[in-house]
Amino acid sequence: xxxxxxxxxxxxxxxxxxxxxxxxxxxxxxxxxxxxxxxxxxxxxxxxxxxxxxxxxxxxxxxxxxxxxxxxxxxxxxxxxxxxxxxxxxxxxxxxxxxxxxxxxxxxxxxxxxxxxxxxxxxxxxxxxxxxxxxxxxxxxxxxxxxxxxxxxxxxxxxxxxxxxxxxxxxxxxxxxxxxxxxxxxxxxxxxxxxxxxxxxxxxxxxxxxxxxxxxxxxxxxxxxxxxxxxxxxxxxxxxxxxxxxxxxxxxxxxxxxxxxxxxxxxxxxxxxxxxxxxxxxxxxxxxxxxxxxxxxxxxxxxxxxxxxxxxxxxxxxxxxxxxxxxxxxxxxxxxxxxxxxxxxxxxxxxxxxxxxxxxxxxxxxxxxxxxxxxxxxxxxxxxxxxxxxxxxxxxxxxxx
Length: 401
Known about the structure:
Distance between the termini: 17 Å
Largest sheet: 7 strands, mixed
Structural class: alpha/beta
Shape: globular
Number of helices: 11
Strand order of the largest sheet: 6-5-14-15-16-13-17
Order of helices and strands: EHEEHEEEEHEEEEEHEEEEHHHEEEHHHH
Helix content: 25-40%
Number of strands: 19
């Protein structure tokens, strides 16, 4: 451990996804230098599916100088429908909040990396961490290529399959497969014309589907294909896109608008995302000089719409704790106490939404009847989403133990 009162001056960050760059920027703002070490040999620019940054995530990004205005597409409302096209519910955006931004992951990646480049934060690639060595004065990360790096602390921002998580706790849980493979695509020339400011969720007869319409009339969609066993991304992409497209067309046959969207999606416009996974509760977020952030600590279902936003929040809150709490152990404890209740509550809510997506025909018929009634009574947007979207970080506020 650092001597009581000693300030953290240098951090090793493992992982350059979303949480890693945000953590580096926030630490720099707190007066702590950081270098990012990425296990892959190249950048992730141009890779990945779609994601949404909610108002709370946009606000947090503003703290570290990342502006997403003009990046992606603003979403003011969410619309739920059944397989016949009947609208079940519409959730408008919360008053006095900016719209969420939906975008390709590569767009967020590019915005973050332009910002860290401007801030002079270094990223080193092909640095796959294999072990660590802690001393009374620091921590050293040893990489697969034989090199090493030393700092005061090590932050694991290396995603749902985090190696740092297992270094902290060899008994840490692994990701859990949720029974479906994720796909997305771009449909052109279809008859589907959704509202440009709306995200649409459809409870199909056999599977769930989401989509939004772009200004040029094309539609980006995402879906969950039930599959008995998980496939790695490499395994899934080894299967021809034409084969997956045929399976998806069969899955959504007779569904509105799923059938139309799939018929107007070509194989070269199909994106294979891979196995849907969640991370069971991680008992230990930190040990000694190591700590987890983002999906390495908690990866909620994509149903939450909060995965990236929560990772961004956590990275900034960790920097605040390290800035204000001199002892590393106490700073990590303060960070976990600050973040765990919120992120686990969001994850629990997303798990309930997953249950609705996977509901059988009988339950979907019941939802079709009850949803409009619920919208008029207890399913108020302020109650359902207000506590999530209104969350704001006060960077100037001092963190106390």
